[in-house]
Amino acid sequence: QEDLFKNVVSHAKEYGYIFASSEIYDGLSAVYDYGQNGAELKKNIKDYWWKSMVQLHQNIVGIDSAILMHPKTWKASGHVDAFTDPLIDNKDSKKRYRADVLVEDYAEKLNIKALKEITKAKKRFGEAFNEEEFVTTNPRVVGYLADRKRILERLAKSLTDEDLDDVKALIEELEIADPDTGSRNWTEVRQFNLMFGTKMGASAETSTDLYLRPETAQGIFVNFANVQKTGRMKIPFGIAQIGKAFRNEIVARQFIFRMREFEQMEMQFFVRPGDEMKWYEHWKEQRIKWHYSLNLGQENYRFHDHEKLAHYANAAADIEFDFPFGFKELEGIHSRTDFDLKAHEEFSGKKLRFFDPELNENYVPYVIETSIGLDRMFLSVLSSSLKEETLEDGSTRTVLKLPAILAPTKAAILPLVKKDGLPEMAQKIIDDLKWDFKVQYDEKDAIGRRYRRQDAAGTPLCITVDHDSLEDNSVTVRYRDTMEQKRVAISELPKLINAEVDF
Ligand code: ATP
C-alpha cells in the first residue's frame, strides 16, 4: 500500500500529472501544480461532474462566484467568532486544538529544510565542518551555516525530549482519529484559524481584512435570491459550482488529499422544509451511482454516516474511497437545514425566502448539499487506475487504466516509421480528429516503446499508420487495456473513438 502510494506520487510527476508548486524553489508545502496531463484530467473530471449535475438536470443551474467575499459572509457562516466556544467547551476539541498549535510550533522550530542543508554541508565538507575554517575560505557559507546552527540550537533548547514525545503522540493521535469522534468537531475547531487572510485596499489605514474562501458553498448561499429570481427557479432546485477553496491546514500531508489550495465541486439543493430527509436519501443514492459509473470498482467506495453532526446539519454522510492509505472521505452529503440562509438573512437584513405557490406560503428553504473535493477525486481516479501488469511473455508493463472519458489524451496517432509519407498521413488524421478529440502525435522510438509510453500516460487508444495504410486507407487500432489490435478504416475512427469515450 505504501509502495503504491509512492508509485502514484512519482508516476504523477513523471507523466506530467502533478508537480510540487514552485518546485524550483523546493516547493510550497501542501500546494501542488497540475501539469500538461493533470490539467486535462482535472478538466475532464470537472466536465463529467458538471454535465451530470447541471446539463442533465433541468432544475439545477451552475454559477461561478468570486473567491473574495464580503467579510460578513464568514461571520454569518460561523467561520469566524462562532468557533471560539467549542474550543473552551469541548474537551476533545481542546486537546486537538492544543495539538494544532504544538504541531505548528514544532514544524517551525524544527525547520526541516535547515536540517537537510546542514547534513548536506557536513557530507560535502566532511571533517572540515567547522566554522572557523570557513571564515577564510568563504564567509558567505559560514554566515549561512552559522545561521542554521543557531536555529538548531534554539530548537534543542526549546524542545525537551518530553515535548517531542508529546508532540509525536499527538500527531499519531490525529492521524488515527476516527472521523466519527473527531472529524466534525475537529473541523469546527480548525475553521477557527484555517482561513487565509488578505487585505483589500491601497493603504494600511483604509484597507479591509478579507479571507480567501474556505468553501465554495457560501458563494451559492449569498446568490440564492439572485439565481432564484432571474432563473425563475421553483423549489426543489439546485445551484452548482466548481471553484477554488483555501484552508490553512495544519496537518497537511498525503499529497493532493489534503491541500492548502484546492478545488471543490459543490451543489446546494433547496427544498421545502420537512422534505429534506427524502432529498438527502435521494442525493446519497445519486452521488454513489455517479461514482460507480466510472467503473473504478464498487468495492472502493463506502458510506460513512455521521453520528455527531456539525451545528448546521441534521444529517450527514461521507462517501469514502479506498485511497492507497485506506478509506478516507472523498465527498460529503449534508442536510444543512435552513442554517445558512437564515444566518445570511440575519446578517444582511435581506430576505432569502421562496414563495411556494402550492402551499401559498413563504419560507426559508432547507438545503441538501453534495460537496466533493476535485483534487481528492483526481487522486482516487489516479491511484485506482495505476496498475503494474505481468504479461504472458513474463515481461511487465505499467498501465494507467483511466476511464476513457477522463483520459487526458483519447488517442495517440503513431506513424510506424518517420518516412515514406507516413508522418504526413498521421498528421492528416490528427487534423481531422482534433476538432472532436484530444489526440497526440508521437513518432519518437520504436513502436513498442511508444505503446508502453501511452499505456503509462493513460491513453486508451493508439492508432498506427503503416505502409499498408497508404494503400488501403486503414490503420491499426490498439486498445490500452486489452492490448488487442484491429484494422480499422480511417473514416471509421471518429465513431470508434466516440464509442470509447461516450458519457
Ligand atoms: P476533512 O474531514 O477530510 O478535512 P472536511 O469534512 O473538512 O474534510 P468538507 O468541509 O466537508 O471537508 O469539504 C468537502 C470536500 O472538500 C471534502 O469531502 C473533500 O473532498 C474536500 N476537501 C476538504 N478539505 C480539503 C483539503 N484540504 N484538500 C483537498 N480537498 C479537501
TrEMBL record:
It is an enzyme of class 6 (ligase). ATP binds at residues 247-249, 257-262, 329-330, 373-376. One of its GO terms (cellular component) is extracellular exosome. It catalyses: tRNA(Gly) + glycine + ATP = glycyl-tRNA(Gly) + AMP + diphosphate. Keywords: Aminoacyl-tRNA synthetase, ATP-binding, Cytoplasm, Ligase, Nucleotide-binding, Protein biosynthesis. Its EC number is 6.1.1.14. The keyword Aminoacyl-tRNA synthetase applies. GO terms for molecular function: ATP binding; bis(5'-nucleosyl)-tetraphosphatase (asymmetrical) activity; glycine-tRNA ligase activity. InterPro entries: aa-tRNA-synt_IIb, aa-tRNA-synth_II, aa-tRNA-synth_II/BPL/LPL, Anticodon-bd, Anticodon-bd_dom_sf, Gly-tRNA_synthase/POLG2, Gly_tRNA_ligase_bac, GlyRS-like_core. Coiled coil: none annotated. Substrate binds at residues 98, 215, 262-266, 369-373. One of its GO terms (biological process) is diadenosine tetraphosphate biosynthetic process. Homodimer. NCBIfam families: glyS_dimeric, PRK04173.1. PANTHER family: DNA POLYMERASE SUBUNIT GAMMA-2, MITOCHONDRIAL, GLYCYL-TRNA SYNTHETASE/DNA POLYMERASE SUBUNIT GAMMA-2. This is Glycine--tRNA ligase. It comes from Gillisia mitskevichiae.
